[in-house]
């Protein structure tokens, strides 16, 4: 039986309910995909709670990344039935099957598992645009990356190290700090017991950092501004602690700072960006420069428990749901 975990209306984790779906048939330029692994991300929480606008009136199927096997192809598609592919899209992944435009998927290399592909598409491509476009790092830079032990942060630490960048991370608790150090960070600050602003200043001899990559929001944004050096860049790409609405444009004047609020899907809309960036990401994984671990796996039907763990900051690295 094909099924999905849907949400009737914006709200808590109790909104998830199982619905039966027909295995969809692809139209021109589309494929039918049977999911084998589905990634879990904070953007799923944002859609579930209504923080991000709902694209439907009811029974929203969330989920932003997945891997699977092609079961049918429409006219004009150059992919094959039985081929393994992965994708990242704003919604629709919390299902056993779906139809998706062929242009929005990428083939999975033979040396990459479905689980890793599902865990890395949204998070890995997010890191790609953050460090290549939002603030393009260069060897010798020092940057600060919040939530360094999470899925995005774990990939970022490794990729930054491979580029010769000194990365300082923040994480909550000794175990998460140790994990971040194992994933490429030069130093990690425990935000539960240390003042990360003072620590960054100490670690940089008062100079500050070239960029801060901040997905936390309300709890961190003002101190993130304080630790930037002159002409530094604040990259806000999430708000796990709530919207950073205490920030004012005039705050940038304190050091002639730059601010950007990028989103992944505006990058994937650019012709050729998805395939090229995914190929670079898979190459980094294939070479061993980036190692992906998935410490948590939940059944898709237990997605509410997965959201509870994510929101409670009880997860590390990547989490995958299996239909």
UniProtKB/TrEMBL annotation:
One Pfam family hit: ADH_N
Organism of origin: Thioclava nitratireducens
Entry keyword annotation includes NADP: yes
Annotated keywords: NADP, Oxidoreductase
Domain Enoyl reductase (ER) residues, every copy: 11-321
Lineage: superkingdom: Bacteria
Signal sequence, start to end: none
PANTHER family xref list: QUINONE OXIDOREDUCTASE PIG3-RELATED (PTHR48106), QUINONE OXIDOREDUCTASE-RELATED (PTHR48106:SF13)
Phylogenetic placement of the source organism: Bacteria, Pseudomonadati, Pseudomonadota, Alphaproteobacteria, Rhodobacterales
The protein, known as: Quinone oxidoreductase
């Amino acid at each position: 039986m094909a099924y999905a975990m849907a949400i009737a209306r914006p709200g808590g984790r109790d909104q998830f309910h199982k619905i039966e779906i027909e295995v969809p048939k692809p139209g021109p330029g589309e494929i039918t995909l049977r999911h084998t692994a589905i990634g879990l991300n904070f953007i799923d929480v944002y859609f579930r709670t209504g923080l991000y606008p709902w694209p439907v009136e009811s029974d929203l199927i969330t989920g932003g990344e997945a891997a699977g096997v092609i079961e049918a192809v429409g006219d004009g598609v150059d992919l094959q039935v039985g081929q393994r592919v992965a994708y990242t899209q704003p919604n629709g992944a919390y299902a056993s099957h779906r139809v998706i435009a062929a242009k929005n998927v990428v083939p999975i290399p033979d040396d990459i598992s479905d689980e890793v592909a599902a865990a890395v598409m949204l998070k890995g491509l997010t890191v790609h645009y953050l460090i290549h476009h939002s603030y393009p790092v260069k060897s010798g830079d020092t940057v600060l990356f919040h939530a360094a032990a999470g899925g995005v942060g774990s990939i970022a630490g490794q990729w930054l190290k491979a580029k010769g960048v000194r990365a300082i991370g923040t994480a909550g608790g000794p175990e998460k700090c140790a994990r971040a150090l194992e994933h490429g960070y030069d130093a990690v600050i425990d935000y539960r017991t240390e003042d990360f602003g003072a620590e960054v200043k100490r670690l940089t001899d008062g100079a500050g950092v070239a960029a801060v990559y901040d997905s936390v929001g309300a709890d961190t944004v003002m101190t993130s501004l304080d630790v930037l050096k002159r002409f530094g860049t604040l990259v806000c790409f999430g708000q796990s602690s709530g919207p950073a609405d205490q920030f004012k444009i005039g705050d940038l004047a304190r050091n002639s700072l730059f601010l950007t609020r990028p989103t992944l899907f505006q990058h994937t809309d650019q012709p050729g960006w998805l395939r090229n960036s995914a190929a670079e990401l898979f190459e980094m994984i294939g070479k061993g420069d980036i190692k992906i671990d998935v410490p948590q796996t939940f059944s898709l039907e237990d997605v509410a428990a997965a959201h509870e763990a994510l929101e409670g900051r009880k997860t590390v690295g990547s989490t995958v749901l299996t239909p």
